[in-house]
Design a protein that fits this description.
Helices cover 14% and strands 30% of the residues. It is an alpha+beta fold. A hairpin with a 4-residue loop joins strand 35 and strand 36.
Amino acid sequence: MFYRAVMLAAALLLTGCEKPQAGNVTEARLLAAEDDPDNWLSYGRTYAEQRYSPLEDVNDSNVGKLSLAWAVEFDTNRGQEATPIVVDGIMYLSTAWSKVMAVDASTGEVLWRYDPKVDGQKGAHACCDVVNRGVAVWEGKVFVGTIDGRLIALDAGTGKEVWSTVTVDQKKPYTITMAPRVVRGKVIIGNSGAELGVRGYVSAYDANSGKLVWRFYTVPGNPADGPDGAASDEAFAKFAGKTWNGKWWEMGGGGTVWDSVVYDADFNQLIVGVGNGSPWNHRARSAGKGDNLFLSSILALDPDTGKYKWHYQVNPGETWDFTATQQITLADLTIDGKPRKVLMQAPKNGFFYVIDRSNGKLISAENFVPQNWAEKIDLVTGRPVERPEARFADKPYLVYPAGIGAHAWHPMSYSPKTGLVYIPAMHVPLSYGDDVNYTRHIGRWNTGVTFLDPPEGTVPGATPAERRAALAKMNRGMLVAWDPVAQKARWQVDMPWPWNGGTLATGGNLVFQGDPYGIFRARAADTGKELWKFDAQRGIMAGPVTFRAKGVQYVAVLAGYGGSMGMATASDWMRRPPANGVLLAFRIDGKGTLAKLPAIPQLPYAQSDETFTAAQYAEGEKQYFAFCSICHTGPVNPNLFKSQLATNRDAWRSVVIEGALKDNGMISFAPWIDADQAEAIRAYVLKSAREQELTQQKGPRP
């Protein structure tokens, strides 16, 4: 705490004497960011990552006059998930394919663009689209992590590359989608790819040179290889390594750090959220034994050395894809009449956690959405009291939340003014079964789970197809205004779609949020009442920001539907096919315009008179769900049931086996399937297309 006080004092002293420069963000300035509402200096505005701005020029009484000020169109219709950074009137942001741009925050004039020119084939290693969640700005540099695993520093004034370093083994299916954070002169970056078979870690690089300072692995390596020579060695030698069994290292183990990293200046510690195991299924990964540290954990590390300080494991022996990578927010709360310095997290498993950040001890945890995998979280041990059947060992189990999560990467916000956390929540049940014939496919998805039709009895007397349809109708979303002290919802808005965008809370008693249909809304923060909306004509999942430029308050957000939701959600469910993404900025009485997109007719289902065998249909269904469904159900990538390639055997083979579209991310699947299996997938696609054409039911509309 003394360190924080010293740096805050330094910030005040340096305010008048620092040399003006583009991207003038210093440690002292970031520590004082709470008192600088005109800017949005880091991913969550301040180190606490509350995504709250005290600005109130736009408020609940005049938000009806909010209108578009300017817009900048991007060059791709892939997912847009970035949170812009705003420094002294200049906005810095990343877009899909890890591109970066700088924009005049008051006019939208593009000042410079940077393209890291990633290999399009790398898109096949991105579990959830070629998205990027943002940049970091520090002492005249802009930092971005790329989909191919590089960390790049750019000159904030020109966009020219200053340095670039490879942070992963690029021969392995690693990617980076997270926004870097800069702490005490070091750029902190993790990576993605757990399902594809990698070992997770978080690294710190010198902000000036790009040289590695320290690395902390989140899961142990092959014991035969000995210590890594990393900051994590001591923790694995003392206790964490003993929590693993089997040959987990053959699939890397998982545990990627792909989103949440927060600096706690009060205790000079870096708090990191760790992801799921590889494969998901605990029995396939670790012989069903051990807690598997540090999977699904919140880790506290020394920011200078990476040395372990403490951890809290959200899901010991994780087996559902219940990551703890969701946003971590710091706050000072009064609990039982006493001030407490806490961290808050609403991870995938559906419980809202309040944790003492001085030592990692659990204070409270209650479910913020419906859940059926645990009776409760034991406040004495901190461990969940699981329902044994939820581990789907003996028979399939319809679990909620499932791997989609009760809350995914979409940013939540916390308003000290209302005392509420605004969570973009989801309810998406999924039927898990134990894949007893699990086969490793390094480079593609590895779960060790079979995703089955809902068990019989879910809908009495229903066929499998009817049960699937009934299950789909259960999917929904919620904007939950959660009281972290009382651990209950103060208000909730229910939505007929599961996906909903990140939130922003402001001092004007407002909460901003987008939705997958492209509607950007402002609600009253105290009641949830809708006060304003704007049709962006493109889905909005990213977290909004607000700032002042030339004395005027703006609200800005990236629109562009993608990610796992845009690839794995049925395209007919969307109002319109995806257009290129766009950056939108709003102000009171703005005069900007957004061109109306032309109506695009829905594509017909693939049709063919060809006949196939029952064995081909069965094999095709198996391989389709193993390799295709995760990327080809939604509107971003082609819906295979409407792909005319499926009607031509040779064209299909040229893409699936020969890699004709590899530059777009559709690599050859020859390493995992042969030509006969590819043909079987085509058979299944044509059969399903016929069935869907006959039985299709329109999805919900807002």
